[in-house]
Amino acid sequence: MAYLLKGVSILGGSPTDLLIHDGVISDKTDGNAEVIDAHGLVALPGLVDVHTHLREPGREDAETVQTGSRAAALGGYTAVCAMANTSPVADTAGVVEQVWRLGREAGLVDVQPIGAVTVGLAGKQMAELGAMATSAARVRIFSDDGFCVADPKMMRRALEYVKAFDGVIAQHAEEHRLTEGAQMHEGEVSTRLGLTGWPAVAEEAIIARDVLLAEHVGSRLHVCHVSTAGSVEVLRQAKARGVRVTAEVTPHHLLLTDEKASGYDPVFKVNPPLRTAEDVAALRQALLDGVIDVVATDHAPHAVQDKECEWAYARPGMLGLETALPILLSVFGEKWDLIADRMSVAPARIAGLAGHGGDLTRAGTPANLTLVDPSARWVVDPGQLASRSRNTPYAGMTLPGRIVATFLRGEATVLDGKVVK
Ligand SMILES: NC(=O)N[C@@H](CC(=O)O)C(=O)O
After folding, report:
1. Distance (Å) from CA 360 to ligand 1 centroid
2. Phi and psi at residue 56, in whole multiples of 5°?
3. Distance in angstroms (rounded) separating the CA atoms of residues 297 and 288
């Protein structure tokens, strides 16, 4: 199938015609190509998420690879990295290959499994990193996300081990001794509400330790969901010294603050917690500066019974795939170069996903791209989302930017805002 995108704006540039042919961007002509009127639409390289929870195997009532892939394609994504905290945990070649195969069967986005660092995410015994790396799933990112790799000796050994295949350890930075019983960010609001706090230093202390470990062994560290101004400062200094560290921020940490907890609606409960307005400002600046490399959704679907209950009993986490780009547009406006780099080019590089995050102006680039209508406004209706879960913190909000089409290797996965298969 060939497509001719008439009058499309590549990254906000002047209108041009873009031909998708044989799975790549082409500079030839094709009289049989399906013509799409793309005037007013912006083409971006397909978005890449380095942090997605797809819940399969184990919690198919919350999400499956199929439903999560639909949500991803509708959000403009062409690749997502599936976190390892499934049941069973993705800590063996068998489980990562299963997730990888399910992704291929769904066929809507490239599903790249992340492997666990430790067996069962328990922090005691290193998982079979080498077997996962050499499996059909070719795992490169390893993470115990949901839990911190707390033991510094384990963290050091894992960082050393993945050097052999240019892997990266993605750390959920949380000093658990400082967050016991925590329900939200520790600060003025938690004091007022009488909820146990999750202090910023619990994140910052682990990042500080880990950048020193990564520097010591000369290995690659990636920091998941950075949420505090102090973490940004630690990262800024580490990067200035040349440490091989990359970092992500979520859309919700770029927009929402701990004031959201005041209504005790568990849809706003998330790990790490929503922080203060000062933290939000620092995270925005860090993304602009490049101290934070990428936006990652931390898409964390939860079944109704796990979310619609008392705050203290609710699971942490919120949906992200279908709203990430609109949230970025509402925070930063139409900064297309920034959005393309932080949501596609840089994440593809970190995850080692060749073929994603390519240059759409070059013939031969794999046709992984998404078309956005920046002038469209839409109201988030949880019932209309493709995810199997409903826990979006943006319900009822009017957001800018609608994903019109997404292409994976030249095949449309989304057209007219609807999934094609
Ligand atoms: N980010 C979240 O709030 N939740 C994550 C795991 C976690 O990091 O706690 C999940 O898997 O639900």
Report:
1. 34
2. -105, 130
3. 17
Active site (annotated) includes residue 373: no
**DSSP letter for each residue of 240-259:** HTT--EEEEE-HHHHH--GG
pTM of the model: 0.98
In terms of DSSP H, where are the helices of 141-296?
152-162, 188-193, 200-217, 229-240, 251-255, 277-289
Atom of ligand 1 nearest to the CA of 300: 12
Model ipTM value: 0.96
**If one looks up domain 45-356 in CATH, what number appears?**
3.20.20.140
Pick the catalytic residue from 298, 306, 341, 373: 298
Residue 57, preceding bond cis, omega within 30 degrees? yes
Residue type, 79: A
pLDDT tens profile 191-239:
999 999 999 999 999 999 999 999 999 999 999 999 999 999 999 999 9
CA distance 356 to 346: 10
CA–CA gap between residue 274 and residue 252 (Å, rounded) = 8
Give the position of tokens 């050097």: 163
* Burial of 317 from C-beta contacts in 10 A (0-12 / 13-18 / 19+): buried
Distances (CA, A) of 325 to 78, 213, 225: 13, 34, 17
CB atoms within 10 A of CB 315: 18
Closest CA to 225 of 243, 203, 210, 241: 203
Q: What is d(CA 190, CA 196) in angstroms, rounded to the nearest whole number? A: 7
